[in-house]
Structure formats: C-alpha cells, structure tokens
Amino acid sequence: MPSVKTGADHYAEYSFTSGAGSLTASQSLEILTAFNKNNWSSYTQTNDYSFNPTATAFTDSTHVTVYISGNLVWGIEP
C-alpha cells in the first residue's frame, strides 16, 4: 500500500518462499497473527477497513485483499 487510503492507513503483508509449496483452488490457509501497542491498551477497530463487528467465527471477507505475484485475486481495496 504505497499511500494512505480512506479507512486504511496500515496493512500487514505476508509472503512465502517457493519452498512453502502452493495451494489448490479448493484449499485454504489460516494465518494466526497478534498485534499489540507498547502499553497494551486496546485498539479501536470500528475505524478499520477490514473490521466486521458481526463476525463471531471465521468468515470470508471481501475487505481483506489477497495478491498473487502483485495481482489482486481476492477482495476489494479500500
């Protein structure tokens, strides 16, 4: 994300080496990540582009983008 967009001023990027293998169209991948502030205070998620306050379990989200070799293959950019 070369510049700030409305509703998105930060992002996380994950990449894999060729040795990681590949997924077929019917396979999925779960990535577990945690973020924290230095003082461990809570984040305000309501202003985050990808935040879904109604989700109570894993769910597909078009507000999370996926790129393969720089090409958008899933989701809608902010």
UniProtKB/TrEMBL annotation:
Lineage, broadest ranks: Bacteria, Bacillati, Bacillota, Bacilli, Bacillales
Return the protein name.
CBM3 domain-containing protein
Signal sequence interval, chain numbering: none
Q: Which residues form the CBM3 domain?
A: 1-78
The terms under GO molecular function for this entry are: cellulose binding
Q: Which InterPro entries match?
A: CBM2/CBM3_carb-bd_dom_sf, CBM3, CBM3_sf
Q: Do you know which Gene3D superfamilies this protein is assigned to?
A: Endoglucanase-like (2.60.40.710)
GO annotation terms (biological process): carbohydrate metabolic process
Q: Which domain of life is it from?
A: Bacteria
